[in-house]
Design brief:
2 domains, globular, five-stranded mixed sheet, alpha+beta, four-stranded antiparallel sheet
Length: 369
């Protein structure tokens, strides 16, 4: 590790770094230098002076903990040498080098919430945020940050075990505004939780769900970097190939990620309801979101049980998720069996839910018995 990234690891606790499975996975991959900077940079809270990485398909690049750069070379390996907080020398495989300005990260004051500079290299590739999106983001982000503070407080009290895992694996939240992309997490920027705030009113319940969801991907990526230990087929195998009919576009590995995160969302919402830490309006929305995610979890449990997917370790994980689902379902069924979701798509829409369920606002969520 020191030979490949001497400046990145200088002064760091290498033994602690070695406990991060994703770092080891980066070294074991077919192209270790291409993603090592993102893996290690997401784990070690330290400003690097030199690291190796790869530009995005539009030439973007992120310096972990420092800022973002734009180049004219797409999908190209590069060594980044940071001369200062605002200047970097990029050394290319053909032996050439050039200097580039580093755009600093923009953070909301007194938070770990970051807003993308224009353009953020991942959002540029995957979202294409327009100038108006950045303006909307700057305007609405402070209100969303307040909703996130309340959500974080509720989640940390209600589900301390999961909250501890989030604090260990997640490094920052990046809010963005886009009408063409869902919230996401990616190992290209390990530890970053990307949350889309477009098209919704600031909501504590939505932030509980989004943090549980995207941080769930980060936590699972950190501890389950070897798919073969849990899945019998190759991770890139289309799940549809193992099912009899039905529409399914995910790989078996992305489906397992979905199963895990759906369970974490359900437990997070359920335990926040049980804790009585939410006001009545937030608790009602939590109940509606929990009802919706339990239906998605039920469907995925059924699909993945019908296919020959799991190794013994994977079967153990499946049983844990199934037991959590059944335990929540026993308490939830009487309150939610009549809920209608005819207007819902992939992302839950609370306004549409209330139109489909006009009597819902008169309900009162109940805790564990």
């Amino acid at each position: 590790m020191r030979a490949l990234a001497p400046d990145l690891l200088a002064g760091a606790d290498v033994e602690q770094a070695l406990r991060e499975p994703l770092v080891l996975a980066a070294f074991a991959s077919g192209d270790p230098l291409g993603n090592m900077g993102a893996a290690i940079g997401g784990f070690i809270r330290k400003r690097p002076t030199s690291f190796r990485s790869r530009t995005s398909r539009r030439g973007g690049l992120m310096a972990p903990g420092v800022g973002e750069l734009s180049t004219d070379r797409a999908s190209t390996a590069v060594e980044v040498r940071l001369a200062s907080d605002d200047l970097a020398t990029l050394c290319w495989p053909d032996g050439s080098s050039d200097r580039h300005a580093v755009r600093p990260m923009k953070r909301l004051a007194n938070t770990h919430i970051r807003l993308p500079a224009q353009p953020h290299f991942l959002i540029e590739d995957r979202l294409g945020m327009a100038a108006s999106d950045y303006d909307a983001l700057d305007h609405h982000a402070p209100t969303w940050a307040e909703a996130m503070r309340t959500a974080a407080s509720a989640l940390s009290q209600a589900y301390p075990l999961y909250w501890a895992a989030i604090l260990e694996c997640a490094r920052e939240v990046i809010l963005f505004h886009s009408n063409s992309r869902n919230s996401f997490a990616t190992t290209d920027s390990h530890g970053s939780c990307f949350i889309n705030i477009a098209g919704a009113e600031p909501s504590v319940a939505m932030m509980i769900e989004e943090m549980a969801h995207q941080c769930g991907h980060i936590v699972f990526s950190s501890i389950a970097h070897d798919p073969a230990s849990m899945l019998a087929p190759a991770p890139e195998t289309p799940l549809a190939h193992l099912l009899r009919g039905g529409e399914e576009h995910r790989t078996v590995w992305s489906a397992l990620h979905g199963l895990v995160t759906e369970c974490l969302i359900a437990k997070s919402l359920d335990l926040c309801l049980v804790s009585n830490a939410l006001c009545h309006a937030d608790a009602l929305e939590c109940l509606a979101r929990l009802s919706f995610i339990m239906r998605k979890l039920s469907n995925d449990l059924r699909q993945m049980n019908a296919a020959p997917l799991f190794t013994p370790r994977g079967q153990q994980l499946y049983r844990v998720i199934l037991n959590d689902y059944l335990a929540i379902g026993v308490r939830l069924d009487a309150q939610t069996r009549s809920h209608c979701f005819q207007s819902q798509t992939y992302n839950f829409d609370y306004a549409a839910f209330n139109v489909d369920n006009p009597a819902f606002r008169a309900e009162r969520p109940t805790a564990h018995q």
